[in-house]
Amino acid sequence: MGTFSQCDCADFLKRCTTTREVLEVLTAYTYANMGWMLTEHVDAFVQTGHDVRALNGGSIGATPTQTDVGRDAWNCGWNTWNTYASNINSALILESAQALVDSGLSKLGYVYVNIDDTWQAGSRVSNGTLGYNTTKFPEGMSALTDKIHSLGLKAGIYSSAGLYTCAGLPAVAGFEMTDAADYARWGFDYLKPASDLATFCRGQFGTPNISYLRYEKMSKALNATGRPILYSLCSWGWDSVEDFGDMDMLESPLILGNDIRNMTNDTLAILSNRAILAINQDSGTSKANRIWSKDVRAAPDTSLPSWQIPPNVTGGSFQLWSGSLADDGGKHLVTLFNTSPQNLTWNISLSDAFPWVSYGDLSSQSFTAFDVWAPAAPASLPANATRAEVASYAYGVAMDGTICGSILEVAVEAHGVRLFVLTPSNATCDQEPAARRMMGRRAWAADLL
Fold first, then answer.
1. Residues sharing a CB contact under 8 Å with residue 284, sequence separation 6 or more, in sequence order
2. Lower CB density within 10 Å: C or N end of the chain?
């Protein structure tokens, strides 16, 4: 068992060749990690006195509503860093905020507009106050957040838990109370405090308690302001909060990092996937489990003589993941994840995917399966539907028939992912063992693993 680590994702991203492949692996990363990330965030809130409300994710396959993934959605929005890095200003941020609204993404729960590094002035003034960069934000931060709020959105800001940020600008260490008061006065609703590597940001690290105490200081400072501010723990590098991946590069669950002003329909469809949104917003999704990961043998280079072909060369991996949803009556999730450049097919045995469940329970229980990434038939939508609402129906379809013990011959394209939501049904399963029913069915991927 393991987690989908930063290295796994980085390795796969190198192999991606299209926008869809990149977004699908980031979605898979979200699925794989969202349970423990939700747990860490909630623990941080509870330990420091914040009131955390559980979210109700709604039915898989149903259109997300504002209750399901709307204005109070968990940590969903957009961040400046991935696309623009230090090249930010108030005009860009407002254009992006408007794009969230115009595209319809805000109606699906993407409501945070988060300003990352380089918003700061170059140094603090004599009383310790840190101002903003007046060239990039000539009207001031309060004016900017007012305009963001007027769109029905929320505003987020970034800092580091060390002395310096990633860009080498002043960070919060030692100035937690001052900076928290400024964030609240300016009208921010969200803070991403990145890590504080001792070698770069001149912070403290080494033990879980040191990490806890450094983040607790800012949590207490935020509470003291009296303004509700979502405290979104972010850590990267070697000193991590329960081994978080590189969240600046891979983003938190459903925090976008692309140019949302210029999105293709395919990109928008992936970001609007109704089933993925419902999974992400499930109130108690547990940490997904990687059941196994198998190396895929690389296709031989036929231009080379056999003695020149390096031994044990792999072409990525083939992985099986599974988990459960808290909402909606005992639903389960199962995923095949293919990081290799080859199309693979596999028979998913439920006893293999869920080893903690007794075989008898799995062999007698029938399920219906919802294929999250299957292209769906065009839906009938109102004429005034937004692009995101239309795109939200592009993927996701219920499979024909009943699943009993296994899902046979699941084809996974190169650099692809297949994700199924399994819902218990009342259909009767025969008592023939799943392994016997699968005999004669060729698991094609076995030839390459």
1. 54, 325, 326, 327
2. N
Cα–Cα separations (whole angstroms), residue 146 to 132, 229, 260, 298: 16, 15, 21, 54
* Nearest of 135, 129, 123, 124 to residue 90 by alpha carbon: 135
Contacts of 70 (CB under 8 A, 6+ apart): 64, 107, 108, 109, 111
Query: Would you state the structure tokens that stand for residue 69, as one six-digit string?
Result: 């993934």
Question: Phi first, then psi: what are they for 373, rounded to 5°?
Answer: -105, 10
Q: In tens digits, what is the pLDDT along the chain, a chain of 449 residues?
A: 233 333 333 343 344 444 444 444 444 444 444 332 222 232 232 233 332 222 222 222 233 333 333 334 457 899 999 899 999 999 999 999 999 999 999 999 999 999 999 999 999 999 999 999 999 999 999 999 999 999 999 999 999 888 888 888 999 889 999 999 999 999 999 998 776 554 445 556 667 777 778 888 999 999 999 999 998 876 554 444 334 444 444 445 578 999 999 999 999 999 999 888 888 777 665 667 899 999 887 766 566 565 555 555 567 899 999 988 875 567 889 999 999 888 899 999 998 998 887 766 776 788 889 999 998 887 788 888 889 989 998 888 888 778 888 898 999 998 899 999 998 888 887 654 444 344 333 444 445 55
